[in-house]
Write a structure and sequence with these properties.
Number of helices: 8
Radius of gyration: 24 Å
Order of helices and strands: HHHHHHHHEEEEEEEEEEEEEEEE
Strand content: 5-15%
Number of strands: 16
Largest sheet: 5 strands, parallel
Shape: globular
Strand order of the largest sheet: 1-4-7-10-13
Helix content: 40-55%
Structural class: alpha/beta
Amino acid sequence: MEIPSYSLADVVALLVESGSDGSASHRYTEDAPMPSVEVLSQIVEDLRSVLFPGYYGPSEITPDTMPYYIGSTLDQLVRTLADQINRGYCFVCDSTEKHTCADCEIRAKKTAQEFITKLPSIRKALLTDVAAAYDGDPAAKTHGETIFCYPSIRALTNHRIAHELYLLGVDIIPRIIGEMAHSNTGIDIHPGATIGKSFFIDHGTGTVIGETTVIGDNVRIYQGVTLGAKSFPKGEDERLIKGLPRHPIVEDDVIVYAGSTILGRVTIGAGAVIGGNIWITRDVPPGSQIVQSRATQQSFENGGGI
């Protein structure tokens, strides 16, 4: 097939022309600021340093200097976060009435301030995750090792931040924060997922947790586990109906081993153990152990079974 030859001007013209098809190919709203992935990345790292001071941020921080560091970091952070929250509102806003923008700015500032009040509870939950990682992995030598090195803790830090913003009704920003962790760790958690305390994702690569998933306390899952949706119902317009509960409920003290897939609004009962590479689309009673059936053992000699 012959490849057409274009000049730079031709390429520019074609890109501009194809961009006129709508927001799927380009984004432009006059005077509406866009969220910044770079700024949000710095916000998350600042939050990480506040939640785990000394591990992230200045390593020489002491008990005497900690209050000053946390205070000054949050003072700057709340303003930066409010600006990004407002940009998130702008991102989804179809209104041409510019006089309403001031209301969004005020709402963004209040939301950022309310989010800051959630940080102690976020930290409390994360410390249970750190303990779960340390207690659940014999390779972990210290709690600090799990904070520094484990993708589970990095992904859950992003998730617990994103989840609180999601609950506060912040647009687009929680998804961006969740995808940062996905890119860094291979763990894909939708910010809408509800996750209890002491949650551990061992190894983690390829783990997927959907938006309406509900996970109880003391749950452990391994790499490659999917907590997903089985089907997506459509409305009369043939478009997917969004927002329905469609992902699993995983009750307390459940273990799901590597490669297993659990689909639909099913319940995995408390204390159940799901073996590796299992496909589940039905409820599992509490205390059950689900494993693959064993293949019949046979030996062959000269092409014939014995």
